[in-house]
Every structure is written in C-alpha cells, then in structure tokens.
Amino acid sequence: MSDYEENESKFMRKAKENPFVPVGMAGFFAIVAWRLMKMKNRGDTKMSVHLIHMRVGAQGFVVGAITIGVLYSMYKDYIVKPREEQKALKDK
User: Fold this and answer.
1) Confidence check: pLDDT of 69 > 80
2) Does residue 31 carry a pLDDT above 70?
3) Cβ-proximal residues to 24 (8 Å cutoff; 6+ apart), any chain
4) Which of 38, 69, 75, 85 to pair with 3, CA 20 to 30 A apart?
C-alpha cells in the first residue's frame, strides 16, 4: 500500500470517528479563502490587522467545531448509550 492510500484511509477513518473534524477543516479553509478574497477591498486597514482578524475567525470556527464535536460525543456516551443499555436490560 502506498503512502497516499495509507494517508487517505487514515483520514477517512478519522472522519468517521469524529465527523466534526472535516467540518472544522472545511470551515477553516472557507474563512481563510473568504478573507483572502476580501483582502483587496480592505481599505485603510493594515495588513497585520486584517491577518489577525482572519486568524481569529478561522480559529474560532475550529474551536466551535471541536466543542460541538465533544458535546455530541458526550451526548452519545452518557445519554444515548445508557438508554440503550437500560432498554436491552428491560427486554431480557
């Protein structure tokens, strides 16, 4: 198996385990692309300020995606799984 195939399968495995990782990555790249396109119309704003705003927006999206992913994981582990276990015990 080549390195490319190994990396591709690793990414797909990680995406299935944590579906919010690709969402965070896509949001990060979308925000960066949007801010780079907006850069030519920045007016009197300094380049450093524009880049800081781009970084903060992209990081905020990634942190939000991670937080939602953690909350979703906790919901599955602590609410859904115990309900399924209780239902399985009642059915026995």
Assistant:
1) yes
2) yes
3) 61, 62, 64, 65, 66, 69
4) 69
- SS3 readout for the chain: CCHHHHHHHHHHHHHHHCCHHHHHHHHHHHHHHHHHHHHHHCCCCCHHHHHHHHHHHHHHHHHHHHHHHHHHHHHHHHHHHHHHHHHHHHHC
The pTM (predicted TM-score) of the whole model is 0.70
**Which residue is associated with the tokens 């030519």?**
40
Cβ(48)–Cβ(83) below 8 Å: no
Could you tell me which residues come within 8 angstroms of residue 80 by beta carbon, excluding any fewer than 6 positions away? none
User: In which band, very low, low, confident or very high, does the pLDDT at 29 lie, cut at 50, 70 and 90?
Assistant: very high
pLDDT digits (tens, 9 = 90+) for 37-52: 888 887 888 889 988 9
